[in-house]
Amino acid sequence: MINNGHTVQISLPPTMRMTAPDGTEYVAKQMHYHWGGASSEVSGSEHTVDGIRHVIEIHVVHYNAKYESYDIAKEVSDGLAVLAAFVEIQEYAENTYYTNFINHLANVRYTGQITTLRGLDILDMLPRDLQHYYSYEGSLTTPPCTENVHWFVLADSVKLSRSQVWKLENSLLNYQNETLHNDYRRTQPLHHRVVEANFRSFPNQRE
User: Which UniProt keywords are present, listed alphabetically (predicted)?
Assistant: First the structure.
């Protein structure tokens, strides 16, 4: 896990993979987080649903398995896929699956610092329901913002306590040694893109 000056990023093993509905297999590369945290920005998700922004957004970045590496895949039109999930605040009760990760944030407080996470189960850090999602063809949300990403935005969300959210929003420093806040890209115009969903309703979304 590294503080790269923009977010906290966890490197993932190539054995972790995702298969899209069309059968395309994607290899996991890394996961990272986007949040707000500054006084005027209480929410930091990069996607909105019905105009609503969430407090944090998780991205699990993958590349198309037919390419030899992420560096090759990131340059081609069908190269990348990102699984995204929102975080919602659950009052009082802490998410114990996040305890290990949050405790290690102190070890990467400064830009460039790296630490090793052990015994981390990525599935436990994602929503319980991975089957219902929104999907569209879009771009990376960080430079170079290339438009070659198949997005899968989960309908279900991760629940963290207010204390856990505060720690994630306030534990890291950027290149200027200032608290790393608002590390998200503003919502972009659709530009005639079609956003699809593989479900009609999702009654457990705010469970």
Answer: Disulfide bond, Glycoprotein, Lyase, Metal-binding, Secreted, Zinc
Q: Where are the domains of the chain?
A: 2-197
Q: How confident is the model at residue 202 (pLDDT cuts 50, 70, 90)?
A: low
Query: What are φ and ψ of residue 82, in 5° steps?
Result: -125, 125
- End-to-end CA separation in angstroms for the chain: 30
Mean pLDDT, all residues of the chain: 90
Question: What is the pTM assigned to this prediction?
Answer: 0.90
CA distances from 159 to 4, 54, 85, 97, 140 (A): 25, 11, 11, 10, 25
C-alpha to C-alpha distances, 192 to 49, 101, 177, 188, nearest whole angstrom: 17, 38, 40, 12
From 6, 34, 132, 191, active-site residue: 6
Between 106 and 192, where is the model more confident? Answer: 106
Q: How confident is the model at residue 190 (pLDDT cuts 50, 70, 90)?
A: confident
Residues 71-97: pLDDT tens digits? 999 999 999 999 999 999 998 889 999
Say whether 54 is catalytic.
Answer: no
Please tell us whether the domain made up of 2-197 is placed in CATH 2.60.40.1500. Answer: no
Helix (H, G, I), strand (E, B) or coil at 151: strand
